[in-house]
Specification:
The protein contains 8 helices and 10 strands. By secondary structure, the chain is an alpha/beta fold. The longest helix is centred in the C-terminal third of the chain and has 16 residues, at about 195-210. It starts with 5 loop residues before the first strand and ends with a helix.
């Protein structure tokens, strides 16, 4: 850890990163959302669109690991008995398969099933936090805030999927809890390009009402990985 602050070119204005106090948060890069046969596909989405976020997220992850800065992975998943899955969530719409139903990668969005695991390129390592969350936001019904507070983390740098749902929800939760949050543009994706673009604009609107966004090149350049 170093006390030297780093300036990252960002929108709506430069983001001051405090090395060692900024955790990389990788949201829901799970097989169930990114690979064919998972929950994302069951909703009729083109899951191949999310694969574009894997390599940029991997580059960020390697940069954080190299410096031994804190890393946190999240997985949206539920207990096998679905006791933490509200009926309103499971029963919404008319997909061919619902949360908990069997699929090619096991039961959809159920902890311990192959589909709930993070894609191999971003697999967590020993010492990195892994949060299983039952909702869209990573702070809801989890130990995330306690972990961050215990480690002295004050800033969050985000990657993951999907931009407009779980990523944005967690950034808004973080904003309400006083964290300065930065979303890396290439390291996040949506099944719908227009939704990603709109979310990036919402985050930086009104002087950064939710947080900041920056390009991968500018983040890596600022921390000496360009």
């Amino acid at each position: 850890m170093t006390s030297t602050m780093l300036q990252i070119p960002a929108r709506p204005f430069p983001y001051t990163l405090r090395p060692g106090l900024a955790a990389l948060v990788i949201i829901d890069m799970q097989r169930d959302f990114i690979e064919p046969g998972g929950f994302g596909a069951s909703l009729g989405n083109d899951v191949s669109r999310l694969q574009a976020a894997i390599e940029p997220s991997r580059q960020l992850l390697e940069a954080w690991r190299k410096r031994r800065w804190p890393v946190l992975h999240t997985r949206e998943s539920h207990a096998p008995d679905l006791s933490d899955c509200p009926p309103a969530k499971r029963e919404r719409g008319s997909p061919p398969r619902r949360i908990g139903d069997p699929g090619p990668m096991g039961r959809l969005l159920v902890r311990g099933e192959p589909g709930s695991e993070i894609v191999p390129a971003l697999a967590p390592r020993s010492g990195e936090w892994v949060i299983d969350k039952p909702g869209k936001g990573a702070f809801h019904a989890t130990s995330m805030q306690a972990l961050l507070e215990a480690a002295g983390v004050t800033q969050l740098v985000f990657a993951g999927v999907t931009t407009e749902v779980c990523v944005q929800t967690t950034m808004r939760e973080a904003n309400d809890r006083g964290y300065d949050s930065l979303l890396v543009e290439e390291a996040t994706e949506s099944y719908f390009p227009a939704y990603k673009a709109a979310t990036l604009e919402m985050i930086v609107a009104q002087g950064g009402i939710v947080g900041w966004t920056a390009t991968l090149a500018d983040v890596l350049g600022a921390i000496g990985e360009s």
